[in-house]
Amino acid sequence: MKTQVTIKDIAKALNISPSTVSRALKDHPDISQKTKDAVNKIAAELDYHPNTIAQSLRKSRSNTIGVVVPELVHHFFASVISGIEDIAYKAGYRVVICQTNEDVTREKINISALISSRVDGVLCSMTKETKEYSHFKSIQNRNIPLIFFDRICNEIKADSVVVQDYEGAYEAVEHLIEQGCKRIAHFKGPDSLLITRQRLNGYYDAMRESHLQIDEDLIIQADDRESARKAIYDLVKSEEPMPDGIFCVNDNVAVGAMMQLREMGINVPREVKIVGFEDDTTFTRLTDPQISSVFQPAFEMGQRATEMFLDELKRKEAHPEKILEPKTPRIEVLKTKVVVRGSSNEQVAQQERARRNYLENV
Amino acid sequence: MKTQVTIKDIAKALNISPSTVSRALKDHPDISQKTKDAVNKIAAELDYHPNTIAQSLRKSRSNTIGVVVPELVHHFFASVISGIEDIAYKAGYRVVICQTNEDVTREKINISALISSRVDGVLCSMTKETKEYSHFKSIQNRNIPLIFFDRICNEIKADSVVVQDYEGAYEAVEHLIEQGCKRIAHFKGPDSLLITRQRLNGYYDAMRESHLQIDEDLIIQADDRESARKAIYDLVKSEEPMPDGIFCVNDNVAVGAMMQLREMGINVPREVKIVGFEDDTTFTRLTDPQISSVFQPAFEMGQRATEMFLDELKRKEAHPEKILEPKTPRIEVLKTKVVVRGSSNEQVAQQERARRNYLENV
């Protein structure tokens, strides 16, 4: 038994030529509406699916966008993907997603697989560990548009979308200073990622411009809940005075820091104020106090990355025979905004708690 | 300039025949180790990627598993995917993921796309809206293994993996009864999903076996935070007495219900006790009180589904020429377990709170 229905099967059923069927399926003007209707009816009945592998071999197009992200458990990346799909589906593209689990080898395998299956473009957010970039070059060497988002790669000339990481960090630290913090720590991400270097720079500049002393011992690498807990534990146990504010590289770090502070008997926000960088609104509003955070437009980031891919595809298709260098790589920067909740402001924390106690004792 | 390096390029560089290169790349015993080493070296230098489209056209294999899930923002599905990848990568398969956003049309498009790109298998969790199943039949008609997980399809003969939805629900309601609840509501999912029907049945049977009266007005469809909030609002505003326990179809519903109860001045767990069904441990432990929930092994579900695919592939490859009916579809059922936290037990809630207050006032 045959496993795939082909154009020949449809032609046979209607007693017309395969090329007529092919043109009818493509809505070619030379074919009568009556024939087109008959062909489409039989195609549906026989459950015909065009063989896109054979097609893409001929026209070197698969109508597929490959997306490579570190981890799908991060709400942030799931939102970016929804933004990508929003634009992609409207433009007639489907989206396949690969996850690297922060593993460079898997990033390379995924990208090699996407190249081999002839995707029309790759949208990528690198792993924390990526320090060698030949797999990205491989994409570009084949004239396949490559767009970075969020965790971009300065070493490769490619269009990219980021948020105002520097500005968001600057404003978060400025906000902590306005709340009276003088000894502010930064729980930072790995130095390999541009976004974490930008956030670190925002921290430095905000501290300097307020003439606050920067204690390098308070700049600690901690980018998940567990490492944040450990960093707090070490700070409490050390001989040095505790920080009175912490700017965290993401919300998970902020949650971990707050839980550990609480368990060690330190009040947030009275004794230590905390601001995170948004990755998941589903939990920043569940804690007591709720967590202040730098909002970033994830859905919009996905939309913009996909629009950049479509632009780049148009440019490359005008010159299919040569590899085009990206002119001057475009970097689109999306706006961030500090959202103040109870973890960085005592009055807001009291309001959050008063509202709750009032409601519970009505 | 050429965009893809081929076997011919390698052959030319080494001045040997393309078929020698091809066999060297496949580690064929007729080719000397010296030649193999030379070929592999040049292949790496030229950045050669095998053209899997052409290959899969020849051998009808792509070494790719397609995964179709409703929504990646659910932590549960992200964990299942990690389990799938765990087994798939070890077996030499790569994984591409498509998301349906609970939209049947997108489910059909994604599946059609996966069929067209010749995936070796499809692992699927249906949308809430799927009530017509021809796209699943399309997969099976092509002899492509189809495995369902979590949201399975009783109307299609296919292997599948679920958790003990009935038993988990039964135990959750039994737990509420043990806590003294007599008037227990169920916030249920859509009737189209087998898992929500199973959880409803568990609720019914636990109520019946304890000889508690079932009030059909307390069985309310609410499967996200917002609909849970509305259901609570309606219950509080109605003339009828409030329920003293609620078994929620998932944790998001439990969070929505608890937040709304609190805002309307009703104490959880004193006045109303709540149990959810696990989808995201990142937030059930952040609330005050923490949320009791039925644990389900998501990672293991992904592993088992992938192992079932590998078994099914073996069986089908033994008979490539015919479409095999699944013998008797296997349904693997994974164990669930009620995890008691403060939302369903006053003593535990007091412990959670006492621990916090003590720590904050040290």
Automatic annotation (TrEMBL), chains A, B:
CDD domains registered for this protein in UniProt: HTH_LacI, PBP1_LacI_sugar_binding-like
Residues annotated as domain HTH lacI-type: 4-74
InterPro entries: HTH_LacI, Lambda_DNA-bd_dom_sf, Peripla_BP/Lac1_sug-bd_dom, Peripla_BP_I
Keywords linked to the UniProt accession: DNA-binding, Transcription, Transcription regulation
Gene3D superfamilies assigned to the protein according to its UniProt record, in alphabetical order: 3.40.50.2300, lambda repressor-like DNA-binding domains
A Pfam family assignment: Peripla_BP_1
Name of the protein in its database record: LacI family transcriptional regulator
Annotated organism of origin: Persicobacter psychrovividus
Organism ancestry: Bacteria, Pseudomonadati, Bacteroidota, Cytophagia, Cytophagales
